[in-house]
Fold this protein.
Amino acid sequence: MTKRALITGITGQDGSYLAELLLAKGYHVVGMVRRSSTVNFERIGHLQDDIELVPGDLLDEVSMIQIMRSQRPDEVYNLAAQSFVQTSFGQPVLTGETTALGVTRVLDAIRLSDHEVRFYQASSSEMFGKVVEVPQSESTPFYPRSPYGVAKLYGHWITINYRESYGMHASSGILFNHESPRRGLEFVTRKIANGVARIKLGLDTEIRLGNLDAQRDWGFAGDYVDAMWRMLQCDEPSDYVVSTDETHSVREFCEVAFGHVGLEWSDHVVIDERFFRPAEVELLVGDASRAREILGWQATTPFVDLVTMMVEADLDNVARQQRNLA
Ligand code: NAP
Ligand code: G4F
């Protein structure tokens, strides 16, 4: 029997990589997409003949119930969220409705569908926030530092609550930052990679950034979606930290990215107060030993390879845009 998977957030970075992985494994992949006035399929355009798209929105419970009843998926990957931390300070209620209560809407729709479903929740290392221990593992206490982090913590606990209350096969991946050439342009890694490409190709002279001292455990998104799938193949649902177990600062990211194209980062990076946050997460570094032991999962993309992959991809993108304009 062909397994059926539903992905919320299929138009996002992770949704596109997960759809590719599940298609390669022979799944029928259904993606939930929300209505917008312009089509937003940049990351999944190449998959459109192979996946089924259904309309729905995490803000609308009826659409979720309808999808669950009509699609009867075996596995649900809840990747949809308002996922940008900085925006969550300006739009805390929307972030809570989507990133927190949206999880309950999906879980309730599964419960009401009266059908055996395995559920994955996209939890986040942002829940560790002002970290109380280093490195962070599944047993590290949480201390979120943004409306996004608080909303994700709600999503994390409601997933555990539905598992314990209703015996649902519901698992959370506490994923540390993962990046790729498909990362949104507002996130710092892609902002730097794209900025470096534009400077190298003569379109810009500077990149304006906030806190260069922040440290993150950055992995490659293509590796991380495999951990999501592995969690749902386990007999028992559980929660796992997924990380590279290495940390690097935003400044180091700049050094490697500019260095790759023969430029000095400090000649082009300008500090801009607008990109500082009301409360910052200074340091994240994971301990993914449980995922290695139980899931057999391991990050495979070193930091320098990730940075250079992103810069190379943006050099191609920017050069293509220049050719199209010529
Ligand atoms: P992303 O690129 O920002 O994608 C977010 C997705 O959610 C998009 O498909 C977006 O649709 C969809 N979405 C937003 N609001 C929605 C709503 N009301 N109803 C339905 N769909 C909605 O995020 P990502 O990097 O792929 O991350 C995937 C998930 O993992 C997110 O939950 C994120 O918070 C979490 N996470 C990410 C990281 C990371 O480092 N990337 C780490 C830990 C956890 P549109 O295209 O229509 O906007
Ligand atoms: O790239 P960022 O915006 O990612 P952040 O805040 O760590 O969140 C990402 O990872 C989380 C997992 O830990 C996910 F849950 C979440 O959905 C998202 O994917 O910022 C990284 C760091 C921050 O400390 C920020 O202050 O970079 C610092 N930074 C410095 N200058 C900047 C900038 N961030 C952005 N976006 N833009 C800047 O100009």
The pocket of G4F (ligand 2) is lined by residues 83, 85-86, 124-126, 176-177, 186-189, 191, 209-211, 214, 216, 250, 275, 277, 280-281, 284 (CB under 6 Å). The radius of gyration is 20 Å.
